[in-house]
Amino acid sequence: MRSRSSSFVGQLALVLGLLSAPLEDARADVGPLHYSVDPRAKGCPSSAEFLRDVERQMGRDDEPPHVDHRPRVDVRIEADARELRAYVEVDAEGPEESHGPEPTAEGRLRKTLRAPAHACGDLASAVAIVVSLMFRTSAERHAPHASSPPSPAPPVEQEPASRSDVSVIAQPDIVLPGSSRVPPVPPAPRAPSSPTSLRHAVYAGAIVGKTLVPEVGVGALVGYGVTWRGERRRLSFGLATEASSTGARTAMARRGGGVLVHSNGLSVGPCLYLGQLLSCTAVTLGSTTGVGTGVREPERRAFLLVEAAVRFGARIPLPPPFALRTDLRVGAPVTRPRFFIESDRIWEAPAVTVLGSCALETTF
How far apart are CA 28 and CA 36, in angstroms? Predict the structure, then answer.
């Protein structure tokens, strides 16, 4: 048989364990106090014994507190083969709703106590102490207290709004008639960088002048050019390629007979454009061919043509996409072909060539 001291120690240990146990949400059907025991639990007090134990715990003080306001408490003891568990569920919303409708699962708290399977009496005594503490705490919370009416709070003087509290909307300057005030000129927007465009050109025309044929030469040319140019830039760069052919011209000998000379060439070189003005340098490779005329045994001779030249000209705009392209060309032949009949020199290529060109150009 257990002694009273060992029983009190067991109850105290269970109470300390209860006070340190965490609160959890619970679900229960409650009245002011409901007590139920699992049939598998042995040695547990009856409902009447448990209620008397709760009242005894609450009446230990000389002046018991006011207990009209009691929270709804549900005590449930469950058992298995190893231990006993006591669940104490209480309405967390307090006694204001103690006489109201049946509460839901929200707003309730749970404490769990555990004890060996043979210690149901000690477990029930510890639960009675906890329930009595809950009732006493609720009663003290609702006990009447003398209180003085709160004094009205002194009026708070509102300080004028600081400059940081005022929103300022910027407005443009307004100039009235007859006013000497001139509104500031807004800065000019920066022009966006213009993309580089690639322009292609094809042209065809005629050439005339002192060329690599006797007298004044007349010929034809076709060309292709490509230009890299900014949309808003007057300066641009390009590359031009031309094929030209000069019509045959005859150089006569004093003693009769002569030579018929014509030339063909292919030139390539860079160009610089400033607005509609152009300047190019070019290297020409080709051939100069002569055929004897007015002689018993005419011969045909061809010579390599190498010439360096510069060109200066302009583009005259026409309805798009056409333009008239004109230039003046000055060249220096590196090779100077010579033609002879027997020992007489009939014609020799000039040291400097000067000719003009005019061509119709279309761009794309």
Answer: 12
Question: Between β-strands 277-293 and 338-341, what pairing exists: parallel, antiparallel or unpaired?
Answer: unpaired
Q: Considering just the CA atoms, what is the radius of gyration of the chain in Å? A: 60
In contact, 73 and 58? CB cutoff 8 Å: no
Residues 6+ apart with CB under 8 A from 155: none
- At 188 the pLDDT is 60
Cβ count within 10 A of residue 282: 21
* Angle at the Cα of 127 from the Cα atoms of 125 and 128, rounded to 5 degrees: 65
Question: What's the confidence (pLDDT) of residue 185?
Answer: 57
Cis peptide before 321, with omega less than 30 degrees from 0? Answer: yes
- The beta-strand segments (E) located in the chain are 24-25, 33-37, 73-79, 83-91, 108-116, 196-210, 217-230, 235-252, 258-274, 277-293, 300-317, 322-333, 338-341, 344-348, 353-363
Residues of the chain with pLDDT under 50: 1-10, 12-31, 61-67, 94-104, 146-148, 156-180
What CATH code would you report for 196-363?
A: 2.40.160.20
Q: pTM higher than 0.70, yes or no?
A: no
Which tokens in the block code for residue 88? 């104490």
Number of neighbouring beta carbons within 10 Å of residue 238: 20
Domain ranges of the chain: 8-96+105-141, 196-363
CA–CA separation, 262 vs 251, rounded Å? 11
Whether 18 and 85 have beta carbons less than 8 Å apart is answered as: no
